[in-house]
Amino acid sequence: MSKVTQITHPLIQHKLAYIRDKNTGSKYFRELVEEVAMLMAYEVTRDIQLEEVEIETPICTTKCKVLSGKKMAIVPILRAGLGMVDGVLKLIPAAKVGHIGMYRNEETLQPVEYFCKLPQDISERDVIITDPMIATGGSAMDAISALKKRGAKNIRLMCLIAAPEGIKAISDAHPDVDIYAASIDEKLNEQGYIVPGLGDAGDRLFGTK
Ligand code: PRP
Ligand code: URA
To answer: Best of 99, 139, 141, 203 to mutate for ligand 1, by most ligand atoms within 8 A of CB?
Structure first.
């Protein structure tokens, strides 16, 4: 089973409230999504590997820990996952960024892959997939499968809001993938939207509706 972590830091809850608010416009929405992604990245990277190095302070020599050579990749699910990339990059500036394009067919709710460009050495990198919303989980499940098919092994999934249905589906299909969410909401409605959710993340980020 996937490890599921809800990151409920007060700053994240505060910002998420304004992200959910339908009166928040695209500019502020984008800023908030980036900020929450940055705060979440702190927790998502809690267990990344360190190695010991010797450092000379102005006083003496001491042993310190720095990030080991293990490389990372951030892979947003287009479009909405893009809104989280810069926030994560603020904490992990050396990460490479891949892109995977998925959209949901609004009638069948089935995801359709339309683009995939990943760092060449994806199989050697720890991967963080970003997408603000996990609803049925279909898009994230297919994105994870697409990455695994191209060699990715160590994958974590980071979202702002997840529905219980989506978490279960991903955990059943990809029990090796840990899931991080700022909130696990109540349910999906008949149109496949998360309740209470935040509406359509892509449209709100890019002002397309
Ligand atoms: C949204 C969201 C997820 C997907 C979640 O993308 O960003 O990728 O829906 O739904 P699911 O869990 O049921 O698959 P959307 O398909 O609206 O595309 P967009 O980001 O281009 O707007
Ligand atoms: N995609 C979104 O952007 N929002 C939802 O609530 C569900 C899927």
So the answer is: 139
Which residues are bridge partners to 178 per DSSP? 156
Per the CB < 8 A criterion, the answer to whether 59 and 105 are in contact is: no
Residue 196 scores a pLDDT above 90: yes
pLDDT in tens, 13-41: 999 999 999 999 999 999 999 999 999 99
Average model confidence (pLDDT) across the chain: 96
How is residue 49 annotated by DSSP? -
Is residue 70 scored above 80 in pLDDT? no
Given a contact cutoff of 8 angstroms between Cβ atoms, the answer to whether 16 and 36 are in contact is: yes
CB 88 within 8 A of CB 34: no
What predicted TM-score, i.e. pTM, was given to this entire model? 0.95
Q: If you measure from the C-alpha of residue 121 to the centroid of ligand 2, how many angstroms do you get, rounded to a whole number?
A: 31
Ligand 1 centroid, distance to 163 Cα (angstroms): 13
Q: Spell out the domains of the chain, with CATH numbers in brackets.
A: 4-206 (3.40.50.2020)
